[in-house]
Design goal:
alpha/beta
Length: about 300
């Protein structure tokens, strides 16, 4: 996968691997177990997913799955190295599938035929997969994957509205729904649809708003309660400020985790020593505006 999308895509896709196996690949498995993905090949590389699977007929096999966002001309050789390594280490010839999730026309080769060697892996272009395989799922993790599929019959606007409407139906809690919408936006970049997704989310009033965040409100309410219990005006004011600050910090923490993962959460130690509400609000707005973690770090000087 492209480095730009690698980490967040892997995080999103790990929840739908079993669905892709059953609905796209067509394998009927009873159980799957993830195994070590770091392969000691010529250059150490971490495979996307390697699973030991138990099939309906009682047999077991090894399933190697990769997601590729760009046309890598040497993909066949990479897959061959994986095949040799996995067969040697595990004593099982793996079934290999590569899901192409890029936007450019697929040009990768799925087979190698030479005088001395023959190898083939299964190459699936997600743009050929009917979006309805995922769109009407009851699992939001599966619904968001439909953005990568074939939606031509529906048209862009209707298609995106259906995705967002399904997420609104399935995820009533606003903060969690905001997470899934952000994931749709990330995946939509692979289809040049991010602008459309953002506009539709805004029109449908689905944009994540910290001021309406449940944790933010709870922080404010707790601050008010603490101030009232003290029974003095100073306590009320202090409680309000503490509650708002706590709400801001919890909301910012959720935004950082959603956008940057563990790397974003590393900034929380610096944020917790910020005692200015205005500075926290400024930082919150910066998260919305930038996609650069370095720019966020520069905020602290």
């Amino acid at each position: 996968m492209s480095k730009r999308y690698d980490k967040i895509l892997k995080e999103i896709l790990k929840d739908v691997v079993d669905t892709l196996i059953s609905r796209v690949i067509g394998l009927k498995i009873c159980k799957s177990t993830a195994i070590e993905t770091k392969l000691q090949v010529t250059n150490e590389r971490e495979a996307d997913f390697i699973l030991r699977v138990e099939l309906e007929d009682g047999s077991t096999s090894l399933l190697h799955i990769e997601f590729q966002a760009t046309n890598y001309s040497k993909m066949i050789y990479r897959e061959l190295r994986y095949w040799v390594y996995l067969t040697e280490v595990h004593g099982v010839q793996p079934m290999q599938y590569v899901f192409y999730i890029g936007n450019e026309p697929l040009t990768m080769k799925d087979s190698l035929l030479s005088e001395t060697t023959t190898h083939r892996y299964n190459l699936i272009d997600m743009r050929d997969v009917d979006c309805e395989k995922f769109l009407y799922s009851d699992k939001p993790e599966e619904v968001i994957i439909s953005i990568l599929c074939n939606y031509q019959v529906k048209g862009v606007k209707i298609f995106i509205r259906e995705i967002l409407s399904r997420l609104r139906e399935l995820v009533p809690e606003e903060t969690l729904r905001g997470k899934y919408i952000r994931q749709v936006e990330v995946l939509s970049q692979l289809r040049d649809l991010q602008d459309e997704v953002s506009k539709e989310a805004e029109e449908m009033a689905l944009v994540y708003d910290l001021e309406r965040d449940v944790r933010f409100k709870q922080g404010v309410e707790k601050g008010i309660e603490r101030g009232i219990e003290r029974g003095i005006e100073r306590g009320i004011v202090k409680g309000l400020l503490e509650g708002k600050q706590k709400g801001l910090l919890e909301g910012i923490e959720g935004m950082l985790e959603l956008k940057y993962g563990s790397a974003g959460l590393d900034l929380m130690n610096m944020l917790r020593v910020v005692d200015s509400i205005d500075k926290l609000v400024e930082f919150k707005n910066l998260i919305k505006k930038t996609d650069s973690l370095d720019e966020l770090k520069d905020f602290f000087g």
